[in-house]
Amino acid sequence: MTDFPPLLCQSPTDPAFVQDPYAFYDRARAAGPFFRWDAYDMICATSHGAVATILRDRRFGRESPPDRRAPVPDHTAPFQRIEDHSMLELEPPRHTRLRGLVLRAFTSRRIAGMEDEIAAICDRLIDRFPGGSFDLLDAYARHVPVIVICRLLGVPEEAGDDLLAWSNAMVAMYQARRTRRIEDDAARASEAFAAFLRDWIAQKRARPGDDLISTLIAAEGEDGKLSEDELISTCILLLNAGHEATVHTIGNGVAVLDREGRRDVDAAVVEEILRFDPPLHMFTRWAYEEVEIAGHVFAPGDEVACLLAAANRDPAVYDAPDRFAPDRDGPANVAFGGGIHFCVGAPLARLELLVALRTLYARCPDLRVTAQPRYGDIYHFHGLEALSVEV
User: Fold this and answer.
1) Domain annotation covers residue 151
2) pLDDT tens digit sequence for 194-241
3) Do the domain assignments include residue 1?
4) Domain count of the chain?
5) 79 and 173 in contact (C-beta within 8 Å)?
6) According to the model, what pLDDT value does residue 221 have?
7) Which segments in the chain show pLDDT lower than 50?
8) Do the bridges between strand 34-37 and strand 7-8 make them parallel or antiparallel, or are there none, so unpaired?
9) SS (H, E, C) 234-281
10) Which residues form the domain of 255?
Protein backbone atom coordinates (compact mmCIF):
# COMPACT_ATOMS: atom_id res chain seq x y z
CA MET A 1 0.00 0.00 0.00
CA THR A 2 1.24 3.49 -0.84
CA ASP A 3 0.10 6.90 0.31
CA PHE A 4 2.43 8.75 -2.03
CA PRO A 5 1.15 8.80 -5.62
CA PRO A 6 3.66 10.18 -8.12
CA LEU A 7 3.71 13.91 -8.80
CA LEU A 8 3.15 14.78 -12.46
CA CYS A 9 3.54 18.23 -13.98
CA GLN A 10 1.19 19.48 -16.66
CA SER A 11 -0.46 22.83 -17.22
CA PRO A 12 -4.15 22.40 -18.14
CA THR A 13 -3.89 25.54 -20.29
CA ASP A 14 -0.83 24.39 -22.26
CA PRO A 15 -1.77 24.49 -25.97
CA ALA A 16 -0.54 20.95 -26.64
CA PHE A 17 -2.55 19.58 -23.70
CA VAL A 18 -5.66 21.53 -24.76
CA GLN A 19 -5.53 19.91 -28.20
CA ASP A 20 -4.72 16.40 -26.92
CA PRO A 21 -5.07 15.70 -23.19
CA TYR A 22 -5.15 11.94 -23.77
CA ALA A 23 -1.38 11.56 -24.08
CA PHE A 24 -1.01 13.01 -20.58
CA TYR A 25 -3.77 10.75 -19.27
CA ASP A 26 -1.96 7.73 -20.70
CA ARG A 27 1.23 8.77 -18.91
CA ALA A 28 -0.64 9.38 -15.68
CA ARG A 29 -2.53 6.09 -15.84
CA ALA A 30 0.70 4.19 -16.46
CA ALA A 31 1.93 5.48 -13.09
CA GLY A 32 -0.99 3.83 -11.28
CA PRO A 33 -4.64 4.50 -10.48
CA PHE A 34 -3.74 7.79 -8.73
CA PHE A 35 -1.27 10.62 -9.20
CA ARG A 36 -0.83 14.11 -7.78
CA TRP A 37 -1.36 16.84 -10.35
CA ASP A 38 0.96 19.77 -9.67
CA ALA A 39 -1.33 22.35 -11.31
CA TYR A 40 -4.13 21.58 -8.86
CA ASP A 41 -2.12 20.19 -5.93
CA MET A 42 -4.68 17.41 -5.86
CA ILE A 43 -4.80 13.63 -6.03
CA CYS A 44 -6.38 12.51 -9.31
CA ALA A 45 -7.94 9.16 -10.19
CA THR A 46 -7.28 7.87 -13.71
CA SER A 47 -8.39 4.24 -13.90
CA HIS A 48 -11.98 3.30 -14.70
CA GLY A 49 -12.15 1.21 -11.55
CA ALA A 50 -10.92 3.96 -9.22
CA VAL A 51 -13.06 6.67 -10.82
CA ALA A 52 -16.24 4.57 -10.84
CA THR A 53 -15.66 3.52 -7.22
CA ILE A 54 -15.17 7.08 -5.95
CA LEU A 55 -18.18 8.39 -7.86
CA ARG A 56 -20.40 5.79 -6.20
CA ASP A 57 -18.83 5.60 -2.72
CA ARG A 58 -20.96 7.56 -0.22
CA ARG A 59 -17.87 8.22 1.88
CA PHE A 60 -17.05 10.81 -0.79
CA GLY A 61 -19.23 13.75 -1.74
CA ARG A 62 -19.47 17.07 -3.55
CA GLU A 63 -20.13 19.33 -0.58
CA SER A 64 -16.89 20.65 0.90
CA PRO A 65 -16.31 20.00 4.62
CA PRO A 66 -16.86 23.09 6.81
CA ASP A 67 -13.15 23.43 7.65
CA ARG A 68 -12.21 23.41 3.94
CA ARG A 69 -14.57 26.16 2.81
CA ALA A 70 -12.71 29.27 1.74
CA PRO A 71 -14.25 32.70 2.36
CA VAL A 72 -16.33 33.94 -0.56
CA PRO A 73 -14.98 37.22 -2.01
CA ASP A 74 -17.60 39.94 -2.21
CA HIS A 75 -17.27 40.23 -5.98
CA THR A 76 -18.25 36.56 -6.50
CA ALA A 77 -21.12 36.54 -3.98
CA PRO A 78 -23.90 36.65 -6.63
CA PHE A 79 -22.44 33.56 -8.29
CA GLN A 80 -22.01 31.78 -4.96
CA ARG A 81 -25.64 32.45 -3.99
CA ILE A 82 -26.65 30.33 -6.98
CA GLU A 83 -24.14 27.61 -6.08
CA ASP A 84 -25.36 27.47 -2.47
CA HIS A 85 -28.70 26.06 -3.63
CA SER A 86 -27.46 23.87 -6.49
CA MET A 87 -28.07 20.17 -5.94
CA LEU A 88 -24.82 19.49 -7.83
CA GLU A 89 -22.92 20.97 -4.89
CA LEU A 90 -25.02 19.48 -2.07
CA GLU A 91 -25.19 16.19 -0.18
CA PRO A 92 -28.07 14.43 1.59
CA PRO A 93 -30.46 15.28 3.07
CA ARG A 94 -30.76 18.51 1.01
CA HIS A 95 -29.57 16.80 -2.16
CA THR A 96 -32.06 13.95 -1.73
CA ARG A 97 -34.93 16.37 -1.29
CA LEU A 98 -33.99 18.60 -4.25
CA ARG A 99 -33.25 15.75 -6.64
CA GLY A 100 -36.47 13.97 -5.73
CA LEU A 101 -38.54 17.08 -6.45
CA VAL A 102 -36.72 17.71 -9.73
CA LEU A 103 -37.24 14.12 -10.88
CA ARG A 104 -41.00 14.54 -10.36
CA ALA A 105 -40.88 17.26 -12.99
CA PHE A 106 -38.05 15.95 -15.18
CA THR A 107 -39.71 12.63 -15.97
CA SER A 108 -38.61 10.15 -18.60
CA ARG A 109 -42.06 10.41 -20.16
CA ARG A 110 -41.73 14.17 -20.53
CA ILE A 111 -38.25 13.77 -22.08
CA ALA A 112 -39.23 10.97 -24.47
CA GLY A 113 -42.19 13.03 -25.63
CA MET A 114 -39.82 15.72 -26.89
CA GLU A 115 -38.21 13.65 -29.66
CA ASP A 116 -40.36 14.99 -32.49
CA GLU A 117 -40.06 18.53 -31.14
CA ILE A 118 -36.25 18.29 -31.04
CA ALA A 119 -36.21 16.92 -34.59
CA ALA A 120 -38.34 19.87 -35.75
CA ILE A 121 -35.92 22.30 -34.07
CA CYS A 122 -33.00 20.61 -35.84
CA ASP A 123 -34.79 20.71 -39.20
CA ARG A 124 -35.51 24.41 -38.80
CA LEU A 125 -31.87 25.19 -38.00
CA ILE A 126 -30.62 23.09 -40.93
CA ASP A 127 -32.99 24.95 -43.26
CA ARG A 128 -31.11 28.14 -42.32
CA PHE A 129 -27.61 26.81 -43.01
CA PRO A 130 -25.63 29.26 -45.18
CA GLY A 131 -23.87 28.29 -48.36
CA GLY A 132 -20.15 27.58 -48.46
CA SER A 133 -18.09 26.93 -45.34
CA PHE A 134 -19.61 27.91 -41.97
CA ASP A 135 -19.23 27.23 -38.26
CA LEU A 136 -21.50 24.34 -37.31
CA LEU A 137 -21.28 25.24 -33.62
CA ASP A 138 -22.72 28.71 -34.18
CA ALA A 139 -25.27 27.60 -36.76
CA TYR A 140 -26.46 24.41 -35.03
CA ALA A 141 -24.81 22.94 -31.94
CA ARG A 142 -25.16 25.99 -29.69
CA HIS A 143 -28.82 26.52 -30.60
CA VAL A 144 -30.31 23.04 -30.24
CA PRO A 145 -29.94 22.65 -26.45
CA VAL A 146 -30.78 26.27 -25.58
CA ILE A 147 -34.01 26.17 -27.64
CA VAL A 148 -34.91 22.84 -26.01
CA ILE A 149 -34.38 24.23 -22.50
CA CYS A 150 -36.42 27.35 -23.36
CA ARG A 151 -39.26 25.08 -24.47
CA LEU A 152 -38.92 22.97 -21.31
CA LEU A 153 -38.83 25.95 -18.95
CA GLY A 154 -41.68 27.65 -20.73
CA VAL A 155 -39.82 30.87 -21.59
CA PRO A 156 -39.65 32.52 -25.03
CA GLU A 157 -37.09 31.21 -27.49
CA GLU A 158 -36.13 34.85 -28.05
CA ALA A 159 -34.53 34.72 -24.59
CA GLY A 160 -32.13 32.05 -25.85
CA ASP A 161 -29.31 34.47 -26.70
CA ASP A 162 -29.38 35.95 -23.18
CA LEU A 163 -29.56 32.51 -21.57
CA LEU A 164 -26.62 31.37 -23.68
CA ALA A 165 -24.52 34.41 -22.76
CA TRP A 166 -25.30 34.06 -19.05
CA SER A 167 -24.59 30.33 -19.14
CA ASN A 168 -21.23 30.78 -20.87
CA ALA A 169 -20.18 33.45 -18.36
CA MET A 170 -21.11 31.31 -15.35
CA VAL A 171 -19.62 28.07 -16.65
CA ALA A 172 -16.28 29.82 -17.22
CA MET A 173 -15.89 29.83 -13.41
CA TYR A 174 -15.08 26.12 -13.57
CA GLN A 175 -12.26 26.53 -16.10
CA ALA A 176 -8.54 26.46 -15.41
CA ARG A 177 -8.10 29.83 -17.15
CA ARG A 178 -10.32 31.58 -14.57
CA THR A 179 -9.41 35.23 -13.99
CA ARG A 180 -10.82 38.21 -12.08
CA ARG A 181 -12.55 39.37 -15.26
CA ILE A 182 -14.21 35.95 -15.62
CA GLU A 183 -15.34 36.16 -11.98
CA ASP A 184 -16.84 39.62 -12.50
CA ASP A 185 -18.61 38.50 -15.67
CA ALA A 186 -20.00 35.45 -13.87
CA ALA A 187 -21.31 37.59 -11.01
CA ARG A 188 -23.12 39.93 -13.41
CA ALA A 189 -24.52 36.95 -15.35
CA SER A 190 -25.72 35.33 -12.12
CA GLU A 191 -27.61 38.45 -11.09
CA ALA A 192 -29.18 38.88 -14.53
CA PHE A 193 -30.13 35.20 -14.83
CA ALA A 194 -31.67 35.14 -11.34
CA ALA A 195 -33.66 38.31 -12.03
CA PHE A 196 -34.94 36.87 -15.31
CA LEU A 197 -36.09 33.68 -13.60
CA ARG A 198 -37.70 35.50 -10.66
CA ASP A 199 -39.86 37.38 -13.13
CA TRP A 200 -40.86 34.21 -14.96
CA ILE A 201 -41.51 32.31 -11.73
CA ALA A 202 -43.89 35.08 -10.67
CA GLN A 203 -45.69 34.83 -14.01
CA LYS A 204 -45.93 31.02 -13.75
CA ARG A 205 -47.29 31.23 -10.20
CA ALA A 206 -50.05 33.50 -11.49
CA ARG A 207 -50.67 31.52 -14.70
CA PRO A 208 -49.29 27.96 -14.49
CA GLY A 209 -48.65 26.12 -17.74
CA ASP A 210 -47.45 22.76 -18.99
CA ASP A 211 -43.78 23.60 -18.52
CA LEU A 212 -40.90 22.75 -16.22
CA ILE A 213 -41.03 25.94 -14.14
CA SER A 214 -44.74 25.46 -13.43
CA THR A 215 -44.19 21.78 -12.62
CA LEU A 216 -41.28 22.58 -10.28
CA ILE A 217 -43.37 25.23 -8.53
CA ALA A 218 -46.09 22.64 -7.93
CA ALA A 219 -43.75 19.76 -7.03
CA GLU A 220 -43.89 18.89 -3.38
CA GLY A 221 -42.39 16.13 -1.27
CA GLU A 222 -42.49 15.17 2.38
CA ASP A 223 -40.20 18.09 3.22
CA GLY A 224 -42.18 20.67 1.30
CA LYS A 225 -41.69 22.50 -1.97
CA LEU A 226 -38.67 24.09 -3.59
CA SER A 227 -37.91 27.54 -2.23
CA GLU A 228 -37.62 30.29 -4.83
CA ASP A 229 -33.81 30.32 -4.45
CA GLU A 230 -33.72 26.54 -4.93
CA LEU A 231 -36.00 26.82 -7.94
CA ILE A 232 -33.77 29.47 -9.54
CA SER A 233 -30.59 27.47 -8.91
CA THR A 234 -32.19 24.32 -10.30
CA CYS A 235 -33.28 26.01 -13.54
CA ILE A 236 -29.83 27.55 -13.97
CA LEU A 237 -28.16 24.19 -13.31
CA LEU A 238 -30.35 22.45 -15.89
CA LEU A 239 -29.36 25.00 -18.53
CA ASN A 240 -25.68 25.45 -17.64
CA ALA A 241 -24.83 21.78 -17.23
CA GLY A 242 -27.00 20.53 -20.07
CA HIS A 243 -26.13 23.20 -22.61
CA GLU A 244 -22.35 23.16 -22.14
CA ALA A 245 -22.04 19.39 -22.33
CA THR A 246 -24.42 18.98 -25.27
CA VAL A 247 -22.76 21.65 -27.42
CA HIS A 248 -19.31 20.15 -26.86
CA THR A 249 -20.50 16.60 -27.54
CA ILE A 250 -22.21 17.55 -30.80
CA GLY A 251 -19.03 19.30 -31.96
CA ASN A 252 -16.67 16.56 -30.77
CA GLY A 253 -18.99 13.96 -32.26
CA VAL A 254 -19.17 15.51 -35.72
CA ALA A 255 -15.39 15.90 -35.73
CA VAL A 256 -14.78 12.23 -34.96
CA LEU A 257 -17.54 10.97 -37.26
CA ASP A 258 -16.05 13.02 -40.11
CA ARG A 259 -12.59 11.61 -39.37
CA GLU A 260 -13.97 8.07 -39.26
CA GLY A 261 -16.06 8.52 -42.41
CA ARG A 262 -19.27 7.54 -40.58
CA ARG A 263 -22.72 8.93 -41.32
CA ASP A 264 -24.97 6.46 -39.49
CA VAL A 265 -25.93 7.51 -35.97
CA ASP A 266 -27.69 5.40 -33.38
CA ALA A 267 -27.63 5.12 -29.59
CA ALA A 268 -24.42 3.05 -29.65
CA VAL A 269 -22.65 5.73 -31.69
CA VAL A 270 -23.73 8.40 -29.20
CA GLU A 271 -22.40 6.34 -26.28
CA GLU A 272 -19.08 5.82 -28.05
CA ILE A 273 -18.75 9.56 -28.70
CA LEU A 274 -19.34 10.15 -24.98
CA ARG A 275 -16.68 7.57 -24.12
CA PHE A 276 -14.17 8.54 -26.78
CA ASP A 277 -14.18 12.34 -26.43
CA PRO A 278 -16.43 13.45 -23.55
CA PRO A 279 -17.33 17.09 -22.86
CA LEU A 280 -16.35 17.06 -19.17
CA HIS A 281 -12.94 15.72 -18.14
CA MET A 282 -12.69 16.41 -14.41
CA PHE A 283 -15.20 16.05 -11.56
CA THR A 284 -14.11 16.41 -7.93
CA ARG A 285 -15.14 14.76 -4.66
CA TRP A 286 -14.29 15.29 -0.97
CA ALA A 287 -13.47 12.43 1.42
CA TYR A 288 -15.72 12.52 4.50
CA GLU A 289 -13.90 9.80 6.41
CA GLU A 290 -10.77 7.71 6.05
CA VAL A 291 -11.12 5.63 2.89
CA GLU A 292 -8.73 3.24 1.16
CA ILE A 293 -9.20 2.94 -2.62
CA ALA A 294 -6.84 0.92 -4.84
CA GLY A 295 -4.05 1.12 -2.28
CA HIS A 296 -4.32 4.83 -1.53
CA VAL A 297 -5.63 6.07 1.82
CA PHE A 298 -7.70 9.25 1.74
CA ALA A 299 -7.98 11.22 4.97
CA PRO A 300 -11.13 13.14 5.92
CA GLY A 301 -11.06 16.47 4.09
CA ASP A 302 -8.96 15.25 1.15
CA GLU A 303 -10.16 16.35 -2.27
CA VAL A 304 -9.83 14.00 -5.23
CA ALA A 305 -10.34 14.70 -8.93
CA CYS A 306 -11.98 11.98 -10.99
CA LEU A 307 -10.58 12.24 -14.52
CA LEU A 308 -13.60 10.99 -16.45
CA ALA A 309 -11.92 11.10 -19.85
CA ALA A 310 -8.93 9.10 -18.59
CA ALA A 311 -11.26 6.46 -17.13
CA ASN A 312 -13.13 6.28 -20.43
CA ARG A 313 -9.92 5.26 -22.21
CA ASP A 314 -8.61 2.82 -19.63
CA PRO A 315 -7.05 -0.14 -21.52
CA ALA A 316 -7.71 -2.36 -18.51
CA VAL A 317 -11.44 -2.34 -19.33
CA TYR A 318 -11.65 -1.23 -22.99
CA ASP A 319 -9.91 -3.04 -25.82
CA ALA A 320 -7.93 -0.58 -28.01
CA PRO A 321 -9.46 2.39 -26.14
CA ASP A 322 -8.04 4.99 -28.54
CA ARG A 323 -10.05 3.47 -31.39
CA PHE A 324 -13.57 4.72 -32.11
CA ALA A 325 -15.70 1.56 -32.05
CA PRO A 326 -19.47 1.85 -31.35
CA ASP A 327 -19.79 -1.95 -31.29
CA ARG A 328 -17.22 -2.39 -28.51
CA ASP A 329 -17.71 -4.31 -25.29
CA GLY A 330 -16.88 -2.90 -21.89
CA PRO A 331 -18.45 -1.17 -18.90
CA ALA A 332 -20.61 1.92 -19.19
CA ASN A 333 -18.66 5.11 -19.74
CA VAL A 334 -18.51 7.65 -16.89
CA ALA A 335 -19.13 10.77 -19.01
CA PHE A 336 -22.26 11.59 -16.96
CA GLY A 337 -20.63 10.84 -13.60
CA GLY A 338 -22.04 8.25 -11.23
CA GLY A 339 -23.69 7.61 -7.91
CA ILE A 340 -26.22 10.04 -6.45
CA HIS A 341 -24.76 12.84 -8.56
CA PHE A 342 -25.23 11.01 -11.86
CA CYS A 343 -26.39 13.72 -14.28
CA VAL A 344 -30.13 14.24 -13.84
CA GLY A 345 -30.29 15.52 -17.41
CA ALA A 346 -28.55 12.50 -18.98
CA PRO A 347 -31.73 11.12 -20.65
CA LEU A 348 -32.42 14.50 -22.25
CA ALA A 349 -28.80 14.95 -23.30
CA ARG A 350 -28.70 11.50 -24.90
CA LEU A 351 -31.94 12.21 -26.77
CA GLU A 352 -30.72 15.61 -27.97
CA LEU A 353 -27.44 14.13 -29.17
CA LEU A 354 -29.10 11.24 -30.96
CA VAL A 355 -31.70 13.41 -32.69
CA ALA A 356 -29.31 16.28 -33.50
CA LEU A 357 -26.65 14.05 -35.05
CA ARG A 358 -29.08 11.69 -36.78
CA THR A 359 -31.05 14.58 -38.29
CA LEU A 360 -27.90 16.41 -39.33
CA TYR A 361 -26.57 13.49 -41.37
CA ALA A 362 -29.98 12.53 -42.74
CA ARG A 363 -30.44 16.05 -44.07
CA CYS A 364 -26.79 16.68 -44.96
CA PRO A 365 -25.26 13.33 -46.00
CA ASP A 366 -22.38 15.10 -47.79
CA LEU A 367 -21.43 17.25 -44.79
CA ARG A 368 -17.68 17.47 -44.41
CA VAL A 369 -15.30 19.27 -42.06
CA THR A 370 -13.30 21.87 -43.99
CA ALA A 371 -10.65 22.91 -41.44
CA GLN A 372 -8.67 21.13 -38.75
CA PRO A 373 -10.86 21.21 -35.61
CA ARG A 374 -9.24 23.02 -32.68
CA TYR A 375 -10.24 22.61 -29.06
CA GLY A 376 -10.82 25.62 -26.84
CA ASP A 377 -8.84 26.53 -23.73
CA ILE A 378 -11.72 25.60 -21.41
CA TYR A 379 -10.40 22.74 -19.26
CA HIS A 380 -11.85 20.97 -17.27
CA PHE A 381 -14.36 20.98 -20.11
CA HIS A 382 -13.29 19.75 -23.54
CA GLY A 383 -14.87 21.12 -26.69
CA LEU A 384 -14.09 22.81 -29.97
CA GLU A 385 -13.62 26.55 -30.52
CA ALA A 386 -15.32 26.24 -33.90
CA LEU A 387 -16.13 23.56 -36.46
CA SER A 388 -15.94 24.68 -40.08
CA VAL A 389 -18.07 22.53 -42.38
CA GLU A 390 -19.66 22.50 -45.81
CA VAL A 391 -22.88 20.73 -46.68
Assistant:
1) yes
2) 999 999 999 999 999 989 899 889 886 656 788 999 999 999 998 998
3) no
4) 1
5) yes
6) 60
7) 1-2
8) parallel
9) HHHHHHHHHHHHHHHHHHHHHHHHHHHCCCCCCHHHHHHHHHHCCCEC
10) 7-390
Asked if 318 contacts 301 with a C-beta cutoff of 8 angstroms, the reply is no
385: CATH: 1.10.630.10
pLDDT for 1: 40
Residues 73 and 281: their CA atoms lie apart, in Å, by 27
Structural domain includes residue 206: yes
Strand 60-61's sheet: what is its strand order? 7-8, 34-37, 42-45, 303-307, 282-287, 60-61
The partner residues of 221 in beta bridges, in order of sequence, read 224
The model's pLDDT over 304-326, given as tens digits with 9 standing for 90+, comes to 999 999 999 999 999 999 999 99
In contact, 286 and 61? CB cutoff 8 Å:
yes
CA separation for the pair 242, 345 (Å, rounded): 7
Residue 380 lies in a domain: yes
Nearest to residue 329, comparing CAs of 246, 377, 278, 272? Answer: 272
pTM value surpassing 0.90 = yes
Residue 67: the pLDDT is 87
